[in-house]
Amino acid sequence: MSKKLLLKDAHIEGIRYFETYRKQGGYGAAEKALKMTPDEILEEVKASGLRGRGGAGFPTGMKWSFLAKPEGVPRHLVVNADESEPGTFKDRYLMEFLPHLLIEGMLISSYCLGSNVSYIYIRGEYSWIPDILEEAIEEAKAAGFLGKNIMGTGFDCEIYVQRGGGAYICGEETALLESLEGKRGNPRLKPPFPAVKGLWERPTVVNNVESIAAIVPIIDITGAEYAKIGVGRSTGTKLISACGNINKPGVYEIDMTITVEEFIYSDEYCGGIANGKKLKACVPGGSSVPIVPANLLLKTVNGEPRYMNYESLADGGFATGTMMGSGGFIVLDEDQCIVEHTMTLARFYHHESCGQCTPCREGTGWMHKILKKIEKGEGKMEDIDLLWDIQRKIEGNTICPLGDAAAWPVAAAIRHFRDEFEWHVKNPELSQTQNYGLANY
Ligand code: SF4
Fold first, then answer.
1. Given 194, 222, 319, 404, which residue has the most CB atoms within 10 angstroms?
2. Does the predicted interface ipTM exceed a cut of 0.95?
3. CA-CA distance, 162 to 164, in Å (whole number)?
4. Which pLDDT does position 434 carry in this prediction?
5. Phi, then psi, of 414 in degrees rounded to 5
């Protein structure tokens, strides 16, 4: 059984409220941290090996150490709660059921980074959650854990919740900062990076909800103890939101030593494939990461079991591996059509492109059109090669990672499931009434 650090109290009735959270030891880590120096906290975070839980997996301690500290210029912590990646809903769970865990993590992080005004930027579709967060902020303030002179330390900290307008691109950190400043959420060219010029051109750290919540157990048990959980550079625990054709969709906390097979088939997690079907493929890290067929998902090319961690999922690179990403684990059974699945994602990325760069603006639209054509049985064999060509021209040629995120699913689908694309071309009539999965199994 995986160790629980973040969700250990999630089942306790009333844990959403300060009184219950405090009775379970809540804000104990904050009290401990406020007696430490900011540099000591930073060393604990570095020692923990925590990697950003938003998708990129960049070491959090290193990111914090890049924060510029010019004299007299305010600094900010911004929590990225714009969780819009299809298949990813673990931050929603944390904010909805454990809002004080996030607030406590923000207090510790703000103190470490020297942020007196910190923000939570939350996607507009999570319309009921800002009220939960604002209530938790008020409770923490009433108890002296936010506001002026927190716990007599002389440190002041206010936290504000800002609702987004429902654009996926605002999950990209610089687009988020633009939106937070009240402008259209267009990604910025980097450098300068937010650590130097972020919110209102001030040094800013942008971190995912889960990353900031993880700061609480790191301070609680120490960074060194946190680093002992997990394996290699995949330290600590990770939240996975599992969905698709499984018996038990939901949010699970894993310690990154379990195999993918165990995660899918064990009753502790997904409980197997729904309706007794066979596993066909999986997108293990949110819609942007490459899809992997069942044989490569359960084992690496060397025949080793594939584990639920950053290194093992990526084993073999994009040719045979995938990525941990945001932990949005989407399972597809044998009845699913990969062309239809890929087309749905292409439509999403086309819709969400901000339009600033040509390869992304035009390429996502073309990919969607061609996929739609193939899926309807109106495609030609050359269309498959054209699709491959377009995704290659997008990847690495755009301002922000949305371009890559749109290209990778298409590349992986063609690489691993070219026969399905060809089936649609060769069977125009069948593909109008059937999908590949149902027609072939
Ligand atoms: Fe906008 Fe797409 Fe360019 Fe990102 S890659 S800046 S979303 S056009």
1. 194
2. yes
3. 7
4. 67
5. -70, -40
Q: Which of 88, 75, 77 is nearest to 121 (CA)?
A: 77
Supply the DSSP string of 2-37, one letter for each residue: ---SSSTTTTSTTTTSHHHHHHTTTTHHHHHHHTS-
Structure tokens at 325: 């990403």
Residue type, 272: G
Tokens representing 252?
Answer: 């699970």
Asked whether 355 lines ligand 1 (CB < 6 A), one says yes
Mutate to test the pocket of ligand 1, among 176, 354, 366, 395 (most ligand atoms within 8 A of CB): 354
- Low-confidence stretches of the chain (pLDDT < 50) are none
Rg (CA), the chain: 22
Distance, first Cα to last Cα, the chain: 35
CB 78 within 8 A of CB 177: yes
Ligand 1 atom with least separation from CA of 354:
1
Write the pLDDT tens digit of every residue in 10-24.
999 999 999 999 999
Tell me the pairing of strands 238-244 and 117-122.
Answer: unpaired
Q: Using CA atoms of 184, 185, 186, 190 in order, give the dihedral in degrees to the nearest 10.
A: 130
Mean pLDDT score of the chain, rounded to an integer?
94
